[in-house]
Amino acid sequence: MAEENLTALNKYIVGSVPTVFYIPEYVTSAEEQLLLNNIYRAPISKWKSLKNRRLQNWGGVVHEKGLLAQDLPPWLTKVTQRIYEESTLFPSAINHVLINEYLPDQGIMPHQDGPAYVPVVAILSLGSPVVMDFVPHPSFENATCTSENDTEDKNSEPAHIEMSSDKCESKYLPFSLALMPRSLLIFKDKAYSDYLHGIKDCASQRCDEAVNVTNGLKVDGETGGDTVINRTGTRVSLTCRVVTKVRKNLIKLSG
Ligand SMILES: O=C(O)CCC(=O)C(=O)O
Ligand SMILES: [Fe+2]
């Protein structure tokens, strides 16, 4: 069964860096709407505002010493359980979900996901499409090429290791992916450990060189031969991960 799943998943591999899976239309429009309804039904206090986006944290607080776990709500486990079972890439059920909301001119600076997580991430995209860029981790020696520098200020996301992407390693080439609504992106291996991923904070993003352009992708329009995604609406993403180190939420009662 697991073997069958892996074979099924292999057809969604995109690009040449191990290993990136892009599954178009992973959820239906109705499921997308249901998820968005639940996300926007959460109390305003559930949102944490960062400089360049808002986010909701589900599953508990990630600390260096582990996750102070809280159960995911059923509307989230419905999709995380499906991702867990169908991908067979996670060692245990997904127990942490970060929901990011981006306005058309918002993004996330190049970063690597923090060490608390198992090095596999599944990102479900809802709403407006966006381009995600992968650039080689700057810590590689023999850096010989230069990539576009994302000049966005650092934000205070504790579960991320963030760094500038001025230098990149020549044998690892940058690549990008067009993330269409309802698609599921999964990345692991080198794409997780040797690359930073980010989204530029501009409303118009080129995607003519995205590695998944032939993978069921439809984009808004073309300008002078360049395929461009015009971000006209809000994008909401669900970053689904596993934290293996889980701390018991001990409540000390006095008396
Ligand atoms: O919104 C996305 O697609 C990416 C989010 C992300 O990289 C993260 O939460 O670590
Ligand atoms: Fe990330």
From TrEMBL:
Pfam families: 2OG-FeII_Oxy_2. Gene3D superfamilies: Alpha-ketoglutarate-dependent dioxygenase AlkB-like (2.60.120.590). Residues 93-244 form the Fe2OG dioxygenase domain. Its main location: nucleus. GO terms for molecular function: dioxygenase activity; metal ion binding. It is found in: Nucleus. It comes from the Eukaryota. This is Fe2OG dioxygenase domain-containing protein. Belongs to the alkB family. Keywords: Dioxygenase, Iron, Metal-binding, Nucleus, Oxidoreductase. GO terms for cellular component: nucleus.
